[in-house]
Design brief:
mainly alpha; two-stranded antiparallel ribbon; 51% helix
C-alpha cells in the first residue's frame, strides 16, 4: 500500500506538516489508541471505582493515566513528526534515489510507504503510521517505554489480584465484566502489550547505543561516521544535555541538539 505525504515544504530543516496517508497504518495507529483507552476503561470499571480505599484508587488511577497520557503523546509526536525526509529536488551531486529523485545522503534509505528517502531510517512502523528515523526516533522510543510501563502496571495491578480471586472462587460482584472476559482482555492487552513494547524498546536502545539502524544491522553494515561512545550516541538522539527533557514527549530533540555540539560530552 503506497501512501502520500502531505507536507508543507520549506527551505532547510524547518518544521512541516507530516502525515502518511496509508490505510493500514491509520488503522493500526487508531487501534493503538483504542487499546490504550480501553485498558484505562477496564482499570476504572473493574478495579478502581469498586475499590473501597479511595487513596488506593486515586494513586493507581493517577499513575496509570499518567503513563497512558505520556504514551499517547509520544505516539502522536512519532506519527506527526517528519522522521527526517530528504527534500525533493535536493542539490545535485552524490547518488540519486531512482524512486523519489532526491540526492540521497549517506545512511538514508527509501521508504516505499512514505515514498521518500528518510535519513537514518530504522524501519517503517504501522503502529505509529510513520517511519522511525533521525528526527522522530526519540518519540518512538518514549512511546515504547511508556507503553511497556503502563502495560506492566496494569498487569500487576489488575491481573494478579484477578487471578488470585478467580482461583479462590472470589470475584467483585460490582464489576461490570465477567472473570473470563477480564482475563482474556488482560492477557491480550496487558501481557502482549508489555512483551511487544519492551521488546521494541530494547531493540531501539540497542540501535541507538550502537549507532546502527535496523536496516544497517540486517545488511551487516556499520555506521560510516560513528560517534565512538554509547553516551554520545544516546545524547545524539535524546538531546544535550542530560535532563528531564529526555523523558518528555513534548521536548524537541532538535532544539536540544542545537544547544550543544555533538563533540561536547
Amino acid at each position: 500500500m503506497q501512501a502520500c505525504v502531505p507536507a508543507l515544504e520549506a527551505p532547510g530543516r524547518t518544521r512541516r506538516v507530516w502525515f502518511v496517508c496509508d490505510v493500514l497504518g491509520i488503522a493500526c495507529a487508531a487501534g493503538t489508541w483504542v487499546l490504550v483507552l480501553g485498558a484505562a476503561g477496564v482499570l476504572l470499571r473493574a478495579l478502581l471505582l469498586p475499590a473501597r480505599d479511595a487513596a488506593y484508587g486515586v494513586a493507581h488511577g493517577a499513575l496509570f493515566h499518567l503513563l497512558a497520557f505520556l504514551a499517547l503523546a509520544a505516539h502522536e509526536r512519532a506519527m506527526l513528526t517528519d522522521p527526517g525526509s530528504v527534500p525533493l529536488g535536493a542539490a545535485p551531486g552524490g547518488p540519486r534515489c531512482p524512486l523519489c529523485g532526491c540526492a540521497r545522503p549517506p545512511r538514508a534509505n527509501h521508504c516505499m510507504v512514505c515514498q521518500r528517502c528518510i535519513r537514518k531510517m530504522d524501519h517503517h512502523c504501522p503502529w505509529v503510521n510513520n517511519c522511525v528515523g533521525e528526527d522522530n526516533q526519540k518519540y518512538f522510543l518514549l512511546f515504547t517505554l511508556y507503553t511497556a510501563l503502563g502495560s506492566l502496571h496494569l498487569l500487576l495491578l489488575l491481573a494478579v489480584p484477578a487471578l488470585r480471586g478467580y482461583a479462590r472462587g472470589e470475584w467483585d460482584s460490582h464489576s461490570t465484566l465477567t472473570p473470563r472476559a477480564s482475563l482474556v482482555f488482560l492477557l491480550l492487552v496487558a501481557l502482549k502489550g508489555f512483551l511487544f513494547a519492551s521488546a521494541m524498546f530494547a531493540t531501539q536502545m540497542h540501535a541507538i547505543c550502537t549507532d546502527r539502524t535496523r536496516i544497517e544491522q540486517l545488511q551487516r553494515e556499520g555506521a560510516e561516521q560513528g560517534r565512538g561512545s554509547t553516551w554520545m550516541n544516546v545524547k545524539a538522539v535524546l538531546g544535550h544535555p542530560l535532563s528531564l527533557a529526555w523523558i518528555s514527549p513534548f521536548a524537541s530533540p532538535q532544539a536540544q541538539r542545537a544547544r550543544g555540539p555533538r563533540g561536547v560530552v
